UniProtKB/TrEMBL annotation:
Functional summary from the UniProt entry: Antitoxin component of a type II toxin-antitoxin (TA) system.
UniProt superkingdom: Bacteria
UniProt name for this protein: Antitoxin
Family, as annotated: Belongs to the phD/YefM antitoxin family.
Pfam family, one: PhdYeFM_antitox
InterPro entries given in the database record: Antitoxin_Phd/YefM, YefM-like_sf
Length: 86
């Protein structure tokens, strides 16, 4: 992934818009990454992928409940908060 400083991204915004059609571009400020700019198409694909994963998790939970495989809600929420399912 290419990286640009915030200043270059600002002064060459037109070029940035062209570059993000090919690949996401990381924007850095004061040497630290602060953002990623991507095409609308790539963003929509990412959002669709996230939605498919969420649906899959709900379907799995539904199957577990149907099969009688339930878990403690508090434990599940703690695991979720701790990134177990990421």
């Amino acid at each position: 992934m290419q990286s640009l400083t915030a200043n270059i991204a600002k002064t060459k915004f037109g070029d940035l818009l062209l570059k993000v059609q090919r690949e996401p571009i990381q924007i850095s400020k004061n040497g630290s990454p602060v953002a990623v700019v991507m095409s609308c198409e790539e963003f929509e694909q990412l959002e669709n992928l996230k939605m498919m994963m969420i649906k899959s998790r709900f379907e799995q939970a539904e199957n577990d409940i149907t099969a009688g495989n339930t878990i403690d809600g508090d434990k599940f929420m703690n695991d979720l908060d701790n990134g177990k399912f990421d």
